[in-house]
Design goal:
8 helices, alpha/beta, Spore Coat Polysaccharide Biosynthesis Protein SpsA, Chain A, globular, seven-stranded mixed sheet
Length: 253
């Protein structure tokens, strides 16, 4: 296992209710393994269990996520449904003395821990407050966030019920040091995304794993090679994407 820094933890944001695909986190994707379990298993390949925290809500329907966390020997923190940033902060305060957070969402089961480790190294070497990447497909992109910066940012947000859209806030200019991690990485032939949002996404990821021999640990680079060789395509969704008016997101108090 890579020598993962003691002052960094993975915060997985996940909940059960979803308008487009209810219960998607716990649907069987590879055999009887769910997307959230695939994500956790992939992360644990390089990251200590004690530094992975599943952050979810206090809603009754999220009890099953606490059971998933216990089954996979990782910590679970339950907090505010809409204020995801607050969940991250309180999870970090509860389980350790951390300097940095890696933000991962439960919608991204193909997140690659190798890239997380690379991004953390880059983040720390550059003394960054926030590090992101656009070099890999949407649906696999982690974000590295300085814990003190996140605390200060959260205090400045007027409507914290919007912090599910955390990237928007993290990129608002308030004097922080933002770094982009750039990597020469293989592209998907049709620029398809790998996030899990709709039934079409679910069926596509299922097909991807089937073509990877049902190996949930397949690295992202190899997954994309399989997609390109097999010319795997996603069906067009019948759901109209919801439009977000970011003018309603007031950042500074």
């Amino acid at each position: 296992m890579h020598n993962f820094p003691d002052d960094t933890f993975i915060a997985i944001a996940c909940r059960i209710d979803s308008k487009r695909l209810p219960g998607k986190a716990i649907k069987h994707l590879v055999g009887k393994i769910s997307p959230i379990e695939i994500l956790i298993c992939r992360l644990k390949k390089m990251i200590p269990s004690s530094q992975i925290i599943l952050t979810t809500t206090k809603e009754k329907n999220c009890d099953i996520l606490m059971e998933v966390a216990e089954k996979n020997n990782i910590n679970c923190f339950r907090g505010c449904k809409l204020d995801v940033m607050d969940r991250f902060i309180n999870a970090g305060n509860k389980y350790g003395n951390f300097s940095d957070i890696v933000r991962v969402t439960g919608d991204n089961p193909l997140t690659d821990p190798n890239i997380i480790v690379e991004m953390i190294d880059y983040h720390k070497k550059n003394f960054s407050d926030y590090t992101f990447t656009q070099s890999i497909p949407i649906g696999t992109r982690p974000e590295i966030i300085n814990f003190d910066f996140l605390n200060n940012l959260h205090k400045k947000i007027k409507n914290s019920s919007n912090t599910e859209y955390m990237s928007f806030y993290l990129r608002q200019e308030i004097g922080q040091k933002i770094s982009e991690y750039k990597k020469d990485f293989i592209r998907i032939f049709d620029n398809e995304t790998l996030t899990l949002d709709t039934i079409e996404d679910f069926n596509y990821l299922k097909k991807v794993f089937d073509n990877c021999g049902a190996n949930i640990y397949t690295e992202l680079n190899d997954i994309i090679k399989v997609i390109n060789i097999k010319k795997l395509k996603k069906e067009k969704t019948k759901i109209t994407p919801s439009k977000i008016n970011f003018d309603d997101f007031k950042i500074l108090k």
